[in-house]
Design goal:
It is built from 4 helices and 18 strands. With 420 residues, the protein is α+β, with helices and mostly antiparallel strands. The chain is elongated and about 115 Å long. The two termini are 67 Å apart. Mean pLDDT is 86; it is low at 1-24.
C-alpha cells in the first residue's frame, strides 16, 4: 500500500470511528468528505511528490542523527579511566586527559624555647591538583589549589591558587610555559612538597628561595643536561592583580641549569634514593635577579648544589648566597642532608643547616628523624627532632621554630603525608 493511501486510510478510519462513537454527526461527515477532497487534489496535482520529498528529508535527518550518535558512542567506548599516578580520564586518542591528585599533610609539633612551650595539631597542607593534555599530546596544563595551609613556606594561605599554567612541548627537548608556576632555582625546591625526606623545606632554602611567580617560562632538556628559566612580574609573588602600579618590580628573572653525571632525570623528582634504585649524581646552579622600581636596586641570589643517590642512601649539599644591592649585606647559608634505608620501608634522615649575614644574624639547626613508608611517598609517617645551636633570629612558623633569645631551642615534629 502506498504512503498516500496509508495516510488517507488512517485519516478516514480515525474520523469514521470517532464519528460512530459520537453518532456520526453531519458536521463530521462533512469534514471527512472535505479531507478526502484535499488529499485527492494534492495527489492529482503533484503525484504524491510532496509526501515523497518530506519522507526523504526525514530519512536524511534520521540517518544524520544515527551517524552522529554512533560516532559519540564510539568515542566514549574508546575513552580510558582509572588510576595512574592519579585518578585519570582520557580520550581514546590521548589528545585530551585529566589527572586529579590530592596532597594531604597533618602535623603534630612540640616546641620548647626560652620563654614558653607550644604544641598542637595543624593541617599543614591540603592541595587539590589537576593536570593533563589538551588539543593534542604536545599541550599540557596544570592547576593546583590549596584548600588549606597553615604558616606557608611558599607564600600560600588557605583557599589560594598555586599552579595555573599551560605548557607547549615542541618535541625537541624545548618547552614554553605561560601562567603562574614554581620558579626554577634550587634542587630542593624543585621537589614537590609531597616527595620530601623531611616534614618541610629547609629554612635556608626558604630564606633564599624564589617561590612562585607569574609570567613566561621555558625549558630545554637533553640526556646529560637541562636548563630552565622564567621571566615574571616579581620573585616570590603569586595571585597578584594588575593595577596602575604594576608590576611591583621592573623585571625579574629566575633560572637554573643542571648536569647529570649518572642516573636518569626521573629519580631526582623525589628526595629519597630507594633501595634497588640505580646510582645517580646531579649538580646544579640557580640564579635569580629582579629590578626594584622603588629603590632602583637589583637584588640577586645564587645557589650551587650537588645530589648523590647511592640506591638505598643519598646525600645533598647546597650553598646559597644573596646580595640585596642596597645595604651591602651579603647573607649566605648552606644545607647538608641525607638519608639511609635500614629496610625497604624505613629510612633514617638527618639535616644540618646554617645561615649568616653581615648584620650578625645567625641560624644553625640540626634535625634527625625517621620515615616509615607505607606506600613510598603516597603514604608515609615521619618523626623528627630539631635542635637550634644558636638563638632563632626570626619566626619560622612553618617549620615550628619561634624567635628566641637563647640557644638550645628544640622542636618535635610528627607528620602523616598522603599524596595520591
Amino acid at each position: 500500500m502506498s504512503l498516500t493511501k496509508t495516510v488517507g486510510f488512517f485519516a478516514v478510519t480515525t474520523l469514521a470511528v470517532g464519528g460512530a462513537a459520537f453518532g456520526q454527526s453531519n458536521d463530521m461527515q462533512a469534514q471527512i468528505a472535505d479531507l478526502q477532497a484535499q488529499i485527492a487534489e494534492l495527489k492529482g496535482a503533484q503525484g504524491g511528490q510532496w509526501l515523497t520529498e518530506q519522507r526523504a528529508a526525514e530519512i536524511r535527518g534520521i540517518v544524520t542523527d544515527v551517524l552522529a550518535d554512533a560516532e559519540t558512542r564510539s568515542s566514549l567506548q574508546g575513552a580510558t579511566s582509572g588510576y595512574n599516578g592519579g585518578f585519570m580520564l582520557a580520550s581514546s586518542d590521548g589528545n585530551f586527559s585529566m589527572k586529579i591528585n590530592v596532597l594531604q599533610q597533618m602535623r603534630w609539633s612540640f616546641n620548647d624555647n626560652d620563654v614558653d612551650q607550644a604544641y598542637g595539631f595543624e593541617n599543614k597542607r591540603t592541595r587539590l591538583s589537576f593536570s593533563g593534555n589538551m588539543v593534542d599530546s604536545s599541550w599540557s596544563y596544570k592547576l593546583g589549589y590549596y584548600l588549606g595551609y597553615s604558616n606557608s613556606a611558599e607564600n600560600f594561605g588557605s583557599n589560594e591558587l598555586a599552579d595555573a599554567n599551560v605548557t607547549k612541548d615542541f618535541k625537541n627537548g624545548f618547552t614554553v610555559t605561560v601562567g603562574q608556576m614554581k620558579l626554577p632555582f634550587s634542587a630542593e625546591y624543585g621537589i614537590d612538597a609531597g616527595n620530601l625526606q623531611f616534614s618541610d623545606y629547609s629554612v635556608v632554602n626558604t630564606v633564599f628561595g624564589t617561590g612562585y611567580g607569574q609570567g613566561l617560562g621555558f625549558g630545554y632538556s637533553a640526556d646529560q643536561f637541562r636548563v630552565m628559566g622564567a621571566y615574571v612580574n616579581s620573585i616570590n609573588q603569586v595571585n597578584q592583580a594588575w593595577d596602575s602600579t604594576s608590576p611591583s618590580s621592573d623585571w625579574a628573572f629566575a633560572g637554573r641549569g643542571e648536569f647529570k653525571f649518572s642516573g636518569d632525570w626521573a629519580q631526582f623528582n623525589d628526595a629519597q634514593s630507594w633501595k634497588g634504585e640505580g646510582m645517580g649524581v646531579m649538580a646544579g646552579i640557580g640564579y635569580a635577579v629582579s629590578r626594584d622600581d622603588a629603590s632602583d636596586a637589583t637584588p640577586s641570589a645564587l645557589t650551587l648544589d650537588v645530589t648523590v643517590d647511592f640506591g638505598g642512601a643519598n646525600v645533598n649539599g647546597a650553598y646559597y648566597w644573596a646580595d640585596d644591592d642596597v645595604s651591602g649585606n651579603n647573607p649566605s647559608g648552606f644545607t647538608l642532608s641525607g638519608g639511609v634505608f635500614l629496610a625497604d620501608d624505613f629510612e633514617l634522615v638527618a639535616r644540618y643547616e646554617s645561615f649568616d649575614n653581615d648584620a650578625g644574624t645567625e641560624l644553625s639547626t640540626f634535625t634527625v628523624g625517621g620515615n616509615w613508608y607505607l606506600a613510598k611517598n603516597s603514604a608515609k609517617v615521619g618523626l623528627e627532632l630539631g635542635w637550634a645551636a644558636d638563638p632563632i633570629p626570626f619566626d619560622v612558623l612553618y617549620a615550628n621554630w619561634v624567635t628566641s633569645a637563647d640557644d638550645g631551642e628544640w622542636v618535635v615534629r610528627g607528620q602523616m603525608s598522603f599524596s595520591f
